[in-house]
Amino acid sequence: YPNAGKSTLLSALSNAKPKIANYPFTTIAPNIGMLCYDDFRKISAADLPGLIEGAHMNYGMGHKFLKHCVRTKILLFVVDIDGFRLNPNTPHRTAFETIMLLNRELELYDEELVLKPAILVVNKIDMDENKQKFQKLKEGMKQSESKVKELPDEIRPNYLIKFDAIVSISAKEHINISTLKQKIRKIIDIYQEQDVTHYLEDTTQRKDIDVIYV
């Protein structure tokens, strides 16, 4: 979602220098960065403009950005621990609701996207109160199959993404950035070795992005 700190995270993880500001829709086109490791391994990453409700119907140019998710190897869901509100005329969405909305938008655009490897990145946990909120969110995610039934139809996905990891960070303060960087590599390597899904195949004919931030 907009203003979740995706551009700040890309800058912290890679060599990219995207435009960063404290207002929604700072990112209006995908930013590309390269995650570099000590053994010279490189993983490409793209920060997409924030998706909004209705992105699957091309609201906010959703199709233009969602198409990039199809060829990526792993999805990073980046959410603000305090949730998101698009404008005064729209409801505030909690972090849990934001995750479910992103899940639903991907599902409605292309059902196969919810089967991709995914990491949930919860940003802005540098304050003690937000660390407590993160623990509560983690518990909620463990019970997501029951909790999602309480959500209204317009934000409830039919198939829940099974996150390979849930990581709390502060992109601004560089908290847990190294941990996340290693987690990204580990999960990509595991799925490449297992070759469990068709979207990891046929990578020799085109240059795909390894990681997409949504």
UniProtKB/TrEMBL annotation:
Matches recorded under CDD domains: Obg
Pfam families: MMR_HSR1 (PF01926)
Keywords: Nucleotide-binding
Entry-linked PROSITE patterns: G_OBG
InterPro entries: G_OBG (IPR031167), GTP-bd (IPR006073), OBG_GTPase (IPR045086), P-loop_NTPase (IPR027417)
Single GO molecular function: GTPase activity
Domain OBG-type G: 1-189
Record's GO cellular component terms: mitochondrion
Record's protein name: GTP-binding protein 10
